[in-house]
Amino acid sequence: MTRQIQISLPSTGDDEWHATREPLTSGWLTQGPKVAAFEKAFSQRHAVKHALATTSCTTGLHLILAAMGIGPGDEVIVPAFTWVATANVVLYCGATPVFADVERDTCNIDPVDVARKLSPRTKAVIAVHLFGLCADMDALRAVLPANVPIIEDAACASGASYKGTPAGGLGLAAAFSFHPRKSITTGEGGMVTTQDAALAATADQLRNHGASISEEQRHNGPKPYLLAEFNMLGFNYRMTDLQGAVGLVQLAKLDRFIDERDRWASWYMEQLAGIPWLRMPQRSAHGKHAWQAFVTTVDPALAPLPRNQIMEILQQQGIATRPGTHAVHLLGCYRDRYGLKPDDLPGARDCDAHTMAIPLHNRMSADDYAYVVEALRGIG
Ligand SMILES: *Cc1c(COP(=O)(O)O)cnc(C)c1O
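Above: inputs. Below: predicted complex with pyridoxal-5'-phosphate.
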């Protein structure tokens, strides 16, 4: 039988399974002590004052924009090459996503194009740390007026850093993802981080239906007749305590996961350097790459075959690959809504057409990595 190598596999097992025992037996199943402990540990690891667990990175980003009061008439600049949720959350608020192009070598937002897309209505920029590589925050900050904050879409960037500061503390607020495709997982889940106490307090209320006091406060308080007040329209974006328990265990493994990924990323770069048509991802020039994915670029001028055919050949050999992510302006719900053309964002168009993620995760063996390298060398 041919070897089967997945693009990504979560590294969960007995430790995570045991961790869910306590909430399952205590009966405290939704946001409670385990979530609080996970938030505390996450905020310490990422050197931020506030961390709020959510149901996903998507709902985390939505919470941040809602807590900032972003709404109809406002514009938020987002990169055009990203997971669709980065733009969707702007629409959830009734605001308008404005696409900025990305740099072809890093796949991250291009500050030069951001400067062109600014308008008096710009209320924020969402910088995505794509695949675990932090966006060039200083270059981005340099083109923005002081009243336009940067929000980090740190979905792929747990454990990443930029110029000595961990992701999560590089802008006004950040949202992380614990989807199984990311380096640490809680099944579904996310985390909002910020240094801003007022923003954290508003996001905390919005996460729990807009309630003025939490279930836990009510449960433990001396006044049984007390119900929360609801003075704002909130959501239910609470993480469960089962997920919090799993997250605590996963977080303790984060640095080991990243170090291992970093070693194999270096090995891939050495081993694949001789393939002229396959461009390697950028190492971080400014800090720690979290290697959520290892995304290569198939150079169309040099490749012996089109990218998609290469992906099919690898698939036949049991090796999963994927395009890096989408050019969001080419997706129906944005293309049709705003009448966007591929050439409007040429960097995103090219990243969409030419990127190819190859397997990199913490359940691959040395033989698996060698097999991927041999298969790529064999093409052409
Ligand atoms: C995965 C991902 C998201 C969505 O995260 P969820 O937790 O699944 O909502 C958002 N943005 C980027 C860049 C992602 O990679």
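The chain has a mean pLDDT of 96.
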